[in-house]
Amino acid sequence: MINIINEKTGKIHSKFNQTVTATGRLSSTEPNLQNIPVKTENGREIRKVFVPQNEDYVLVDADYSQIELRVLAHISGDKGLIKSFINNEDIHRRTASEVFGVDSDLVSPLMRSRAKAVNFGIVYGISDFGLSRDLKIPRKEAKLYIDNYFDRYPLVKKYMEDIVKEGKEKGYVTTILNRIRYIPELSSSNAVQRNFGERMAMNTPIQGSAADIIKIAMVSVYKELKARRMKSRLILQIHDELIVEAYKDEVEEVKKIVKEKMEKAFTLRVPLTVDVNAGMSWYDTK
Hints:
alpha+beta; Alpha-Beta Plaits; DNA polymerase, domain 1; 2 domains; two-stranded antiparallel ribbon; 10 helices; globular
């Protein structure tokens, strides 16, 4: 990081690429500021070095809550999934309750953790083999989790089947804002390639739509800060979150702007919710 500090500004300036990732997400290079981990000790230490330009500013971090699962609920139209988000339930606890057939109050931390893996695994078209490897459980048990999930959320299963079929017919799939991704692997004679294409077909409308939504939010936040002639500036996007370098006198106003613009970026069948935190370093905002 020290080697890439700009001599004129004394800051690190990442490059953001609009058309590198196939899913539509922005990518960050020189350096990549989107893959600095938050769950490892090293990652947390590195985040402490990212601070505002001076003591008149703080960092405001706004993060979409489970945006990909919300997009899945919207696209699939599954009533159970939609109801969970509208009622502001803990979606992983709810899934655990459904998959393991126990009352919500009896869901253990292990059950919730496994349900979380199923929830996010479904978004990426995970197989029973993949889930068994991730959770270190027998494949038969992993298959049972996935089967139970689809029994409880039947329209999610229908969406997965329909989008693969559509992708094979058209040669591409689209996001909810109609951005196209061609998937030639779907017609491959190689089974491994074909399976990869099917997973891409399932995931692209979800991850790609989330990418579209955060881009709309970014433009909206930027325009609002500029329209109000604020000293605060949008400085970083990390997939589902935005970071603003906020002037201290503007912090509460910035929090409201970012939350409102992100939550209203696009209307889904379920609410978009955003968690906002402020701190004197990137580390402090989590």
